[in-house]
Amino acid sequence: MKISTLGFPSTEEAKLGKILPLAKNAAYTLQAFDASGVPDVLLVFGEVGAYQAQLTGLSGLPVQIGVVAKQPPEQAGYFHLPFPLVASRVLRVLDGLSGVGGIEPPSTPAQPEHTAITVTAEPAAIAAPIEGDTALQYRVLVVDDSLPMQKALALELEKLPATVHIDFAGSGEEALTMTEEQRYDFIFLDIMMPGIDGFEACTQMRKRPAMKKTPIIMLTAKTSPMDEVKGVIAGCSTYLTKPIVHEDFQKVMQRITKWVDNFSVRD
């Protein structure tokens, strides 16, 4: 599926470019919006009225047009992609539009040609359910500005004997926003990131009453005694060293999931 953007800030377009390769159910390609090719999906950032001339030129073409904003668009004929962009939510919306991954596409009445669609689903898993005890489900946040690291953690999490719902954040600031909107069973938090680093993000999370007992696993390229001290002060639960070693990861997960299953207050 070819996806183009209109009016996107460079930072948000870069974020979208990192999200699309995480898709498992379909291949999504980000391409420039110009006369050389018509995309399957056009994502408009903010108010569509400012781009009415460009949108009018797409009339009659098989293009699904969505608005990226905090609130659904008032104009008919556009679907809604909530802002801020969250990886699992973006991919769920796109999967729904393409009708893949067992997700029903948004219903569209016969008239008009384009129908206003509001996708109100909460952030959901981009990882497919795993065989095992389906009674066990975990919602996990992975905070790392490295796409390969995000993928490595997702692959390890898929090996847990449970259904794992994974959200991704590329910065400490984004993680703080996402944890305000969604409760997570546990969080992977990289130390070295641009902007707010992992120590500061962890400190701010622990100030929230609802997150005082949330397991936070810090990710570091190499653990030094000073890092461990700073992590303890910030409130992290444990460490994992990068690159991820399967045996070490699974041992940590056994401890973390056991605690979550026995002591965590879950929705």
UniProtKB/TrEMBL annotation:
Entry-linked PROSITE patterns: RESPONSE_REGULATORY
CDD domains: REC_OmpR (cd17574)
Record domain Response regulatory: where: 139-257
Keyword Cell membrane: no
InterPro entries for the chain: CheY-like_superfamily, Sig_transdc_resp-reg_receiver
GO biological process, one term: phosphorelay signal transduction system
Pfam families registered for this protein in UniProt: Response_reg
Keyword Phosphoprotein assigned: yes
Positions of modified residues (4-aspartylphosphate): D190
Keywords associated with the record: Phosphoprotein, Two-component regulatory system
Name of the protein: Response regulator
